[in-house]
Write a structure and sequence with these properties.
345 residues; alpha+beta; Alpha-Beta Plaits; 2 domains; seven-stranded mixed β-sheet; 24% strand; globular; binds (3R)-3-hydroxy-3-methyl-5-(phosphonooxy)pentanoic acid
């Protein structure tokens, strides 16, 4: 019985370290929720999760860099507590961890106590796929702790289920990109839902600008849904055009045609503005980047605050300076082919 268990579940360990990259969406956020294609790339900043076996069956979660500078909360008459503003991110991070652990426990009938520590090299809840990275990392680390070996696709699928239950609506874009790594063409309606894109010239020159985000991904997705339900004859064609932009962008990325990729990013931004997910700060960032020499710039992720990306090969420092001059933080990002990884040692 013991041998059979070990053969099926592998040999379980007591300390597991997993890291997963963040991601930026080059094309197609929001539209991907309605089945349109999108293009996203894993980036060279990672979320790290450490899971250590406990002697009991309790789960203890520690999020080291989610510091809480005060909090805003709403107490409703039914006794429920809702955290607001920046404080919400802490609750959100805990919800992704909790659901990831529950899914593994339910699916594989295991119950192991664990101390789970999360750190992030990038801002959380800002459009860089950190929720997905936390979800797939915890799925991988907790399952390994229980002696279960899941491959990248399985981690992506379970990570997607975590996002779906926490957010209510989600696409597979984030969980697939962070688990698999590389630049991916995500096509929810195709038989092969994702494919790697090879860029002829190497995809360099990306800058990320970050401003605070108040609204969560779930809230922004819900806002677009309401807008679409209200005026489908207007919003549906906008969503379809976002899909067309992503289809065309794939050929330009393969060819390494940065001018045209930039032009399509700007069109994508216009469409995101039209469906109502930009803010005045995000638009200011987008234009600051373009004025400093970016070939294209747009929101990445759900919007309502958070991050923008700019494509500025050879002008990265000018674009970062322009973003910092308007009071937002900025950093360079490079695509990485490294998806989820178990760190040895
Ligand atoms: O802001 P993020 O990184 O959570 O990205 C959300 C992307 C959406 O397309 C808006 C939602 C989704 O699940 O694809």
């Amino acid at each position: 019985m013991l041998i059979l268990y070990a053969a099926f579940h592998g040999v379980s360990r007591t300390l597991i370290r997993v890291s997963t990259p963040g991601k930026v969406t080059l094309f197609g956020e929001h539209a991907v929720v309605y089945g349109e294609p999108a293009i996203a790339t894993a980036i060279d900043r990672r979320v790290r999760v450490e899971a250590e076996r406990r002697g009991d069956d309790l789960i203890r979660i520690e999020a080291k860099d989610l510091t809480l500078a005060g909090f805003k909360a709403l107490l409703s008459p039914n006794g429920s507590i809702t955290l607001e503003g920046e404080s919400k991110k802490v609750l959100a991070a805990i919800s992704y961890v909790k659901r990831a652990v529950e899914l593994i426990q339910e699916k594989y009938s295991v119950k192991r106590g664990a101390h789970i520590v999360i750190t992030s090299e990038m801002p959380v809840g800002a459009g860089l796929g950190t929720s997905a990275a936390v979800a797939v990392s915890v799925v991988k680390a907790y399952s390994l702790l229980a002696g279960i070996e899941l491959n990248k696709d399985e981690c992506a699928e379970l990570g997607y289920n975590v996002e779906l239950s926490v957010q209510g609506i989600a696409s597979r874009m984030d969980s697939t990109t962070v688990a698999v790594g590389g630049i991916l063409y995500i096509d929810p309606k195709a038989e092969k839902t994702y494919e790697g894109i090879a860029c002829r010239r190497g995809f360099e020159g990306l800058v990320v600008g970050y401003t605070n985000r108040e609204a969560s991904t779930g809230e922004m997705v819900e806002r677009v849904k309401r807008f679409r339900d209200d005026v489908p004859e207007i919003v549906t064609p906008l969503i379809n055009v976002i899909g067309e932009v992503a289809r065309k962008a794939r050929t330009y990325i393969e060819a390494g045609d940065f001018q045209r990729i930039g032009a399509l990013m700007n069109i994508n931004q216009g469409l995101l503005e039209a469906i109502g997910v930009s803010t005045s700060k995000l638009s200011q960032m987008v234009y600051a980047a373009r004025c400093a020499g970016a070939l294209g710039s747009k929101i990445t992720g759900a919007g309502g605050g958070g991050c923008i990306i700019a494509l500025a090969p050879g002008k990265e420092y000018e674009v970062m300076a322009a973003l910092r001059a308007i009071g937002v933080s900025a950093f360079r990002a490079s695509p990485t082919s490294d998806g989820i990884k178990v760190e040895e040692g």
